[in-house]
Automatic annotation (TrEMBL):
The keyword Acyltransferase does not apply. Residues 58-289 form the ABC transporter domain. GO terms for molecular function: ATP binding; ATP hydrolysis activity. This is ABC-2 type transport system ATP-binding protein.
Amino acid sequence: MSHDDEPREGAADGDRPREDAVHGERPCAVIGDRPREGAAKGDREGGVDGGRAPEEAVTVTGLRYAFGRSTAVDGLDLTVTAGEVFGLLGPNGAGKTTAIRCVTTLLPVPAGMVKVFGHDVSTDRMAVRRLLGYVPQQLSADSSLTGRENVSLFARVFDVPRRERAERVAQALEAVGLAEAADRMAGTYSGGMVRRLELAQALVSAPRLLILDEPTIGLDPIARTGVWDHIMAVRAASGMTVLVTTHYMDEADQYCDRVALMHQGRVRALGTPRSLTDDLRARLGDGSSPTLEDVFRDVAGGSLDDLDKGGEFRDVRRTRNTAARVG
Ligand SMILES: Nc1ncnc2c1ncn2[C@@H]1O[C@H](COP(=O)(O)OP(=O)(O)OP(=O)(O)O)[C@@H](O)[C@H]1O
């Protein structure tokens, strides 16, 4: 398995349109005053800054988690480097959500160890929470509040100082292209706008680590692009680290610096999308151009869609509920 960090061709930030195709507002801005800690995608793929070892944003070692007799995460090892966009991929039931809930401190760590910027999530929970923004798969915006009220609520929960609140809320809404719609009820928003509102909720505390669980599930391709454009713009401006789970291999290929392909609670392949597809191409040696989906099929013995059908009812229902609510 390759951990190679070769620069990728295409899909660099600068190649992508910055206009939000749906709402026409430009993604932008840094929220709060966190120093920029990483370079934009493509500047940083060497992974080592001036010979120093890169800082680890997330370190997961031997993580196990079981619901009763059912093992959800089965000895997970993972390192997310500060400033990168890291994709955790896998079918329904692979253990992605359980793993990231352990990282966010929402679930305990029964076995193994999880650290966020060096803070142990089991013993230093509050320090970890102060560093994170989390957009869960289940929708968290209140449809009976305006966009601004939703984000203000999060600013209060995350202890954004009172005198900075209004400005930080406005910055977060602006950063996701919702400045003009800020005073409308969230219930009137499109699916893509709801997802961007949730992004603003997570960004208002100026997190060093943004964790997104299936941020684009159920959205049409234009809305998906809109969500990603805003994530990447904030990332480029602030240097925050992004840990994202997704089913969409094309999104992972386009936006993630590195990906881990997860199946049955374990990482089956890890590397840059390009290194993973290059490795498979070299192994096949038949002149074909494999995709990330092919890599997944190779390591997990089935396509993502086939494996999705094997997910438990609970997993599929949760995915569909989210898709139905944003759709
Ligand atoms: N609250 C729960 N109680 C019992 N089992 C659960 C619970 N949550 C998850 N599981 C089980 O743990 C396993 C991993 O689920 P998890 O949600 O972490 O997977 P996932 O990769 O995030 O899937 P999805 O893509 O559907 O979000 C699955 O078998 C799932 O059914």
